[in-house]
Amino acid sequence: MKSSMYLEFREKQLDEKEIVAKAKRIWVDNGNKASELKSLKMYIKPEENTAYYVFNDEVSGCFPLD
Protein backbone atom coordinates (compact mmCIF):
# COMPACT_ATOMS: atom_id res chain seq x y z
CA MET A 1 0.00 0.00 0.00
CA LYS A 2 1.28 3.43 -0.88
CA SER A 3 0.18 6.35 1.25
CA SER A 4 0.78 10.09 1.49
CA MET A 5 0.05 12.53 4.28
CA TYR A 6 -0.14 16.29 3.97
CA LEU A 7 -0.52 18.85 6.72
CA GLU A 8 -2.50 21.90 5.68
CA PHE A 9 -2.71 25.05 7.75
CA ARG A 10 -2.43 28.81 7.29
CA GLU A 11 -2.53 28.48 3.51
CA LYS A 12 0.45 26.09 3.61
CA GLN A 13 0.68 22.46 2.60
CA LEU A 14 3.49 20.36 4.05
CA ASP A 15 4.37 16.84 2.92
CA GLU A 16 5.05 14.20 5.56
CA LYS A 17 8.13 13.02 3.64
CA GLU A 18 9.66 16.52 3.71
CA ILE A 19 9.11 16.88 7.47
CA VAL A 20 10.65 13.45 8.19
CA ALA A 21 13.58 14.20 5.85
CA LYS A 22 14.29 17.43 7.73
CA ALA A 23 14.34 15.57 11.05
CA LYS A 24 16.72 12.96 9.62
CA ARG A 25 19.03 15.74 8.36
CA ILE A 26 19.15 17.13 11.90
CA TRP A 27 20.23 13.68 13.15
CA VAL A 28 23.05 13.44 10.62
CA ASP A 29 24.07 17.12 10.94
CA ASN A 30 24.64 16.49 14.66
CA GLY A 31 27.38 13.98 13.86
CA ASN A 32 25.34 10.79 13.90
CA LYS A 33 25.33 8.09 11.24
CA ALA A 34 22.07 7.61 9.36
CA SER A 35 22.32 3.87 10.07
CA GLU A 36 22.25 4.57 13.83
CA LEU A 37 18.77 6.09 13.64
CA LYS A 38 16.51 3.21 14.67
CA SER A 39 13.29 5.09 15.48
CA LEU A 40 11.79 8.50 14.90
CA LYS A 41 8.66 9.82 16.56
CA MET A 42 7.20 13.05 15.21
CA TYR A 43 4.69 15.37 16.84
CA ILE A 44 3.35 18.20 14.68
CA LYS A 45 1.82 21.29 16.31
CA PRO A 46 0.56 23.56 13.53
CA GLU A 47 -0.69 26.17 16.00
CA GLU A 48 2.93 26.60 17.14
CA ASN A 49 4.32 26.18 13.59
CA THR A 50 6.63 23.52 15.08
CA ALA A 51 7.58 19.89 14.53
CA TYR A 52 8.87 17.98 17.57
CA TYR A 53 10.95 14.82 17.22
CA VAL A 54 12.34 12.02 19.37
CA PHE A 55 15.24 9.99 17.99
CA ASN A 56 15.73 6.43 19.28
CA ASP A 57 13.50 7.18 22.29
CA GLU A 58 16.35 9.28 23.74
CA VAL A 59 17.16 12.51 21.89
CA SER A 60 14.47 15.13 21.40
CA GLY A 61 14.15 18.54 19.89
CA CYS A 62 12.11 20.63 17.52
CA PHE A 63 12.24 22.74 14.39
CA PRO A 64 9.93 25.28 12.75
CA LEU A 65 7.66 24.14 9.96
CA ASP A 66 8.57 25.84 6.71
Overview features:
single chain; 66 residues; alpha+beta; three-stranded antiparallel β-sheet; two-stranded antiparallel ribbon; 1 helix; 5 strands; 21% helix; 39% strand; globular
Notes on the structure:
The longest helix has 14 residues, at 16-29. Strand 3 (40-45) and strand 4 form a beta hairpin. The chain has one domain. Strands 3-4-5 form a three-stranded antiparallel sheet, covered by helices on one side. The model has no long low-confidence stretch (mean pLDDT 93). The protein is of the alpha+beta class. It contains one helix and five strands. The N and C termini lie far apart (28 Å).
Please write out the topology.
Blueprint: E1 6-9, E2 12-15, H1 16-29, E3 40-45, E4 50-55, E5 59-64
Antiparallel strand pairs: 1-2, 3-4, 4-5
Helix content: 10-25%
Q: Give the topology string: H per helix, E per strand.
A: EEHEEE
Q: Compute the number of strand runs.
A: 5
- End-to-end Cα distance, whole Å, is 28 Å
Arithmetic mean pLDDT = 93
How large a portion of the residues is in β-strands, by DSSP E? Answer: 35-45%
- For the largest sheet, list the strands in their spatial order: 3-4-5
Helix/strand class = alpha+beta
Major sheet attributes:
3 strands, antiparallel
Low-confidence stretches: none
Query: How much is the radius of gyration in Å?
Result: 12 Å
Q: How many domains comprise the coordinates?
A: 1
